[in-house]
Amino acid sequence: MIFSKRSRYGIRALIDLARNAENGSMQLNEVADRNSISVKYLEQIFAALRKAGIIKSIKGPQGGYLLARPPKDIRAADIIVALDGSYFLDSEEVQGDGKGETNVSVVQREIIEPVNELAGHFFNSLTLEKLAECAKEQEEALQNMYYI
Question: With 0-12 CB in 10 A as exposed, 13-18 as middle and 19+ as buried, what is 108?
Fold first, then answer.
């Protein structure tokens, strides 16, 4: 299981797009600045997200990027698969002469398969809409804090 910087940055940028959706398309450099991500790196991330149908781009002076689907229809699983290929632990395989096959089977059955099942359920039930709501709530809570 890899939760790469690429996926982390991609999710942050998509939260930004979801929270600013009412403003129409967003310029890449604006999204990059607000999220402290290199424009060049975000271009690569957005290319993969566009290819996966998660975002779309509009060309021209008033162009930019916007979500291709409503945030409620974009799952964390979709994003991670588009950027990293998978979020599952690799299957355990018997090496060489087959010794330790029982132990390999136990690791596969008792660790890898349950973790993959939980990860699949978690990432498929977590939507971009939920992440954007959490970000909004956290921002509002920070704005309401008073310091002495």
Answer: middle
End-to-end CA distance of the chain: 44
What is the pTM for the complete model shown? 0.86
Q: Which domain holds residue 92?
A: 5-143
Measure CA 54 to chain center: 11
Q: What is the pLDDT of residues 132-141, one digit of tens each?
A: 999 999 988 8
- The two three-digit tokens of residue 73, written as one number: 């229809």
User: How remote is the C-alpha of 74 from its chain's centroid?
Assistant: 10
CATH of residue 106's domain is: 1.10.10.10
User: What is the per-residue pLDDT across 34-84, written as a single tens digit (0 to 9) for each?
Assistant: 999 999 999 999 999 999 999 999 998 888 999 999 999 999 999 999 999
Distances (CA, A) of 45 to 8, 103, 134, 139: 10, 39, 22, 25
Domain tally for the chain? 1
Residue 65: strand pairing partners? 26, 57
Report how far residue 130's alpha carbon sits from residue 122's, in angstroms, rounded to the nearest whole number.
Answer: 13
Q: How far apart are CA 92 and CA 113, in angstroms?
A: 10
Q: What does the alpha-carbon distance between residue 132 and residue 138 come to, in Å, rounded to a whole number?
A: 10
